[in-house]
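Weekly structure sync, notes
Attendees: PL (lead), two postdocs, one rotation student
Agenda item 3: pending single-chain targets
PL asked that the sequence for the first pending target be pasted directly into the notes so everyone works from the same version. It is reproduced below exactly as submitted, 653 residues in total.
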Amino acid sequence: MKKIEFSHKDLSNLQFALTKEILRANISNAYACTTLTSCNTRKYHGLLITPQPKIDNQNHLLLSSLDEVVTVEEQEFNLACHRYRNGVIYPKGHKYLQSYVVDLIPTHIYKVGNAVLFKQMLFQEKKDRLLIKYTLQKSDVNIGLSLRPLLAFRQVHKLTVANDVANRNYQICQQGVSYQLYSKYTPLYIQFSKKVAYEHKPEWYYQFEYIKEKERGYDYLEDLLMMGEFRTELREGESLFVSCGVEEDNPFLISRDFAKEASLRFPISTMEDVLKRAARMFFSRKGTKVDVIAGFPWFGRWGRDTFISLPGLCLAIGDWRMFRMAIDTMLEDFRDGFFPNIGKGDQSAYNSIDAPLWFFWSLQQYAYINNAKREVWENYSKVMGCILDNFSEGASNVRMDSNFLLWQGQEGKALTWMDAIVDGVPVTQRKGYAVEINALWYNAVMFYRELAEDFCDDAATAKWDEFANCFPDNFKSVFWSKSMGYLADCVDGNNKDFSVRPNMIFAASLPYTSLSLKIRQLIVEKVRQELLTPRGLRTLSPTHKDYHAVYAGNQSERDRAYHNGTAWPWLMGAYAEAYLKVYGDDAVDYVEQLYGEFDKILCDYCVGSIAEVYDGNPPYSPGGSISQAWSVAEVYRMKYMTECIKNRKERSL
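Predicted structure, written out during the meeting:
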């Protein structure tokens, strides 16, 4: 792949630069996120977003921006860039940006007259702390550098309004100061690698405009509190290190800490390197507990997303330990055969029928890839058996009927992954027999039987013998239409919905399938003809009357398009797997071409990652969360599958 770099021409064009976002996250779920020019366009943008355990343990934005002003021979140049109400851009520091380079350490390069200033930012892996390094790379004279912090101290989904309650005071710490606008918040410490002058002059800046929130139909104006100004001088070749964190640190070690963090980064030379770096940011770890963040900047942990993402995020990379910790963490909230869809503990919402079935698939991948079937059976067979028993006996909103198929549904609820609801009504009505639910159900039971047979649990094997014999014919009779040439998406009584959706692909991709090779080939071809895009599979055929070509507008408009035409990258993993299974090793080149298409868009939205969704029609504009776990995971798994086939071929030579 080519080097990820943006030129002065790119950066000086705000229409272009404000659509490209930068994300850095650490293992504790703290992150920094903004645009290429550091002009915030979302309420989720800022330099230090971190969980607040004394409030709600959710992410809160502390430091929105750190505005730089460079002084050269008594002339000031403001490097900051903000958008205010009605689209007013001030200051216009983007015009001094010469380039932005993504490499071992992402670097902004500013040029003011003959002075060249490098700015490099790293988010510390194990501390909620942003480290910034300013280096005067070239200059005929010493320059002045001033930094002005803009503070928010609020929950990421909300906005700040100027008020008299905010604490405008500051505390002195080692070579810096700390702020705590409201009680219960962790203080924000801003410290420097050398002594700097500080002038305290708190002042509200009004009506920053977050254009992305405006486009999404949300409140979009915010006031921020500028607390004061730090001032220092730099000579040519000198570096200044800045620490922005929630704990006081030793300022004399900031440069060492920066170098240590830099040493943990690996250079980017391939698309796989980019995806591996993106994959690391989705893990939130506290001790032995690991959560998978579904997507940045607004999602938390989702059960379904966790199980779908883990093989691509962990197993394809060889991180078995992280996989096990994430699985075991999810088990802490396992209740009555279900995993939470969202939330944890008392805040868990058990409204996902498929999360327990994806749990089987995730363990199945671990067992096969890591040759760990015994480990899976010994550690997880009781949970697996509990899920199967609950589903077969009739659990909440799901039951196994006499034909051995799973029926699911609840009035006003959307229990599959197509879960958008508008005005209390599911956008995609899928009550009854859903095709991917039953494909996953068959795969789960058969994998459980496989393990039971391998480890001589005759009772567990015999319990599902009739299922194994009867399910394939029943599945085919319920879903298959010879005249249509593909599977129904959902069946409820006599109502068979033959809308062309991607859910049928799982009946062809999963390790256990009840369908013949011929039928699976027809499914793959139907999906290829009507749903395949370079960015993922459409959620509805363009020939359907309800097809939405563009994912845009307010919440309800987006929700109506979400699963009615919008393309999802995560579905490409299943499509690639199905294609490889029905067409064999000769399909490797084709799948690698599909994988290579994503190389073209790694700089289109979140630099170095893959979005949640894309429009169903060209030019396939990105939307939703800027960096989505299962998008990255399943696209990376495409490459992993082709590499496995090529390696197997090489070993056989």
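Discussion points:
- The CA atoms of residues 534 and 597 lie 6 Å apart.
- The two ends are 29 Å apart (CA to CA).
Action: rotation student to compare against the earlier draft before next sync.
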